[in-house]
Structure formats: structure tokens, C-alpha cells
Amino acid sequence: MGIKERKEREKNTHRELILISADKIIKGEGLDKLSIRKIASDIEYSPAIIYHYFHDKEEIINTIIKRNYEKIIRTLSSLQVSEYKPEDKIKYSLEKYIQLALEMPEEYKTILLNNSTEVLKHTSLLFEGASVKRKALNILYESLKEIYMDKSLGDNFIELTAQIIWTSTFGLILKLIIEKDIPSEQRKLLIHHHISLMVEGIILRKTIN
Asked: Which residues bind DNA (predicted)?
């Protein structure tokens, strides 16, 4: 291994250690408690060393957010649903998405409630054309197109429908994260009822001429 490759590997190792520490602090104490000094203390680095690898705390946060969001996208994209009816694809994908979000509550809040320009490049999905540019929304959009393929509904209607389903699900997830003392059975009922209402509404719209 050459000197250049070794230095690059060392750089990546140091960056990864910093990111792991920052992620741990966010999970344990919340995003507002994260600081360069706290990361430095945790991994026994000086703050100056951390600034050598990251421009500022914002860059560390944005890197973690993008990683976690990409994890969600990979999970949704890997779902084996090709043999399902489109409405069942939506049910399964929504259920899996909710489960994944609830398994990483602090990370989820940090990702989806972040309004920095850099993060919104990956997470915004209410703009026109989002169904093409956002993989997560596209999964839902394509299933809706299958359902409505025999209807004279434009792409804009289908995209708007996907956006509303997505944001409604986002709202439920946030409330379940915030109201964390809800009994597990009630949580299951809420999730099931939400998904049923979403899919039943989609099917109902299909029957309207």
C-alpha cells in the first residue's frame, strides 16, 4: 500500500470514529446536546483534530443524516414486493417504513425535521416532480400508477396522492415517537388503522368514474 492510500485510509478511519461518536451522542442525548467538544471528549481527541476532518458540527450532522436517510431508502428499495398486488405493495411498504422509523426514533426526527438546505436536498418531497427525484416517494408513486392505470388520472394527481399519503404517515410516526408511552397494542392498532384508511381511500378513488 502506498503512502497516499494509507493516508486516505487513516483519514476515513478517523472520520468514521468521529461520526460514530456523534451518532451515539445524538441517540443518547438528542441533537441539541451535540458539540465538537463533547465528541472530542468521548473519543479522546482534541477539538482541533476534529476540525481537521470536518469543517464544523453542521457537516458532521449532515453526514449522519444523509447516511441514515440512505439506510431508509435502501431498506424500502430492497423489499421483495414484485409479486404483490399494488395495494398490497403499498400496505407492506408503509408498514415496513413505519417499523424502521420507530426503530431509530432519534435519528428519524433528526433527519426529517432538519431544515438545512443540504439535508433538504435529500428529504424534501412536496415539490412538483418529487416522485421522479425522490426514491422513497417513487416507490409509492409507482404502486399508485399500477392501481390507477385504467383511469384517466394525470401524473400530477398520482404524485399529489403519494405526497399526501407520505406526509400523513410522517405525522403518525412523529406522534408515536413523541408519545412514546403508548401501550404496544394501541400502537399496533393505530398503525394498522392508518394503513387501512390510506389503502381503502386509494381503492375507493379507483371506483369513482
From this structure: 35-54
**Tens of pLDDT, residues 167-183:** 999 999 999 999 989 99
pLDDT tens digits, one per residue of 47-100 = 999 999 999 998 998 888 888 878 877 877 776 666 778 888 899 889 989 998
Mean pLDDT of the chain: 88
- Quick check: 18 and 54 in contact, CB under 8 A? yes
* pTM reported for the whole predicted model: 0.80
Specify the fold of 1-54.
Answer: Arc Repressor Mutant, subunit A (1.10.10)
Task: Report which of 94, 97, 107, 159 is spatially closest to residue 133, judged by C-alpha positions.
Answer: 159
